[in-house]
Amino acid sequence: MDKVLSNEKKMLSIIAILSIVVPVAVAILMILPENARLKTDNHLIQGLPFFHAVINGSTFILLLLGGVFIKQNMIKQHRLVMASAFILSAVFLVSYVISKLSNDPVPYGGEGVMRSLYFFILITHIVLSVPVLPLAMLAIYRAYVNQINKHKAVVKWTYPIWLYVSSTGVLVYLFMYPYYG
């Protein structure tokens, strides 16, 4: 029993540390001065916003499938698509960091209602993206150790937030598309 509690404490500590380090690192990248960015003319890196939209859209679809599979008690399929959604989100995070290090910020050029709508979606997307990582990791951990009731309690919050963040990631790209060079 002590080993189980010790392992749980270790895992929860890792989740807590990553939950702090990752958002802080991303926040630092957001305020990185222009002269500290990597200089590149690589078209693959310049195309990362589209790649991010594809990843976010794919994650959204996987999350929807995960919801359908669990409602139909298709546990293996549910685990597969949810693990895939988490992996895609991790790929997104790495790619996003690369993008922030190498691409200059692109300002939104819309006006009026569209500008207000864009910033509402962007701000809520950013704010809600912060808890997705710890919630998703905690949900995965609880499922992995077969703490299904605790898993369900975490997923009650994780699932709608993650759906929102992945769908608004696509919307942010669509709003910004006309302004990418």
Explain what the structure shows.
The protein contains 6 helices and no strands. It is an all-alpha fold. The protein has one domain. Helix 3 packs antiparallel against helix 4, helix 3 packs antiparallel against helix 6 and helix 5 packs antiparallel against helix 6. The N and C termini lie far apart (58 Å).
Radius of gyration: 18 Å
Strand content: under 5%
How far the N terminus sits from the C terminus, by CA atoms, comes to 58 Å
Mean residue pLDDT: 89
Model regions low in confidence, pLDDT < 50 over at least 5 residues: none
Number of helices: 6
What percent of residues adopt helix (DSSP H or I)? over 70%
Derived structural class: mainly alpha
Q: What profile does the largest beta sheet have?
A: none
How many domains make up the coordinates?
Answer: 1
Tell the overall outline: globular
Quaternary organisation: single chain
Question: Strand-and-helix sequence, N→C?
Answer: HHHHHH
Number of beta strands: 0
